Amino acid sequence: MMLSRYLPQNLWAALKREWMIYHLGLPEFRFMFDPAPPNEWVSLDCETTGLHVGRDEIISIGAVRIVGNRVMTSERFEVLVRPEHGVSAESVKIHRLREQDVAQGLPIDEAMKQLMRFIGSRPLVGYFLEFDVAMLHKALFPMLGMGLPQSKIEVSGMYYDYKFRSQPAHLRQDIPQIDLRFDTMMSDLGLPVREAHDAVNDAVMAALAFIKLRQLKG
After folding, report:
1. Which is it for the CA torsion 33, 34, 35, 38, positive or negative?
2. pTM higher than 0.90, yes or no?
3. Left, alpha or beta for 80 (phi > 0: left; psi -120 to 50: alpha)?
4. Which of 11, 22, 76, 112 sits between 20 and 30 A of 61, alpha carbons compared?
5. Cα distance between residue 72 and residue 204, in whole Å
6. At 195, is the pLDDT very low, low, confident or very high (cuts 50, 70, 90)?
7. Poorest-confidence range of 16-25, 36-45, 76-85, 95-104?
8. What's the domain range around 140?
9. Residue 87, pLDDT score
């Protein structure tokens, strides 16, 4: 039987939080469980050596804070990460980061510590964030015994909901075919497109889309 079925939701959430803090591998990062600053988020993106969570590695992380309707680009987080197994020629074609570019990057553990301090307890925002979070969790589990506890907000999901609501009511019974490609979304929202496959640029664009979609929802 699941205990969560028999407890009020707020009590279950509090118990789960305390359990996670107690088992946190590095207690100095317990601040991630604090209440999030009101109206603040962090948009993030990772560049990797490939798209296989099990065997590929993070080589670049970019993140920006969002405060209200502002993207705080002057307070951005940007690091290169030194991979253990090198960078393939195929991945260089995508993110343009060569072996020599990342050779002096941070060890993954240090990059994760700096990222956690930058994020604090703020909710995370991203475009197809699930992959980035999975890559981060692969690095964090050996350190923390868990992944990032902050809530996560998927921008492509917000965009899908926006497009779905825009459908005439009689068409909503069918699942509409909505183009979720990044360039399509940015163009449809009337937002500027930066050079892609750069971690900071991708984080900024996801942040702009997040702000615009929140405004459209309101």
Report:
1. negative
2. no
3. beta
4. 22
5. 9
6. confident
7. 95-104
8. 37-217
9. 75
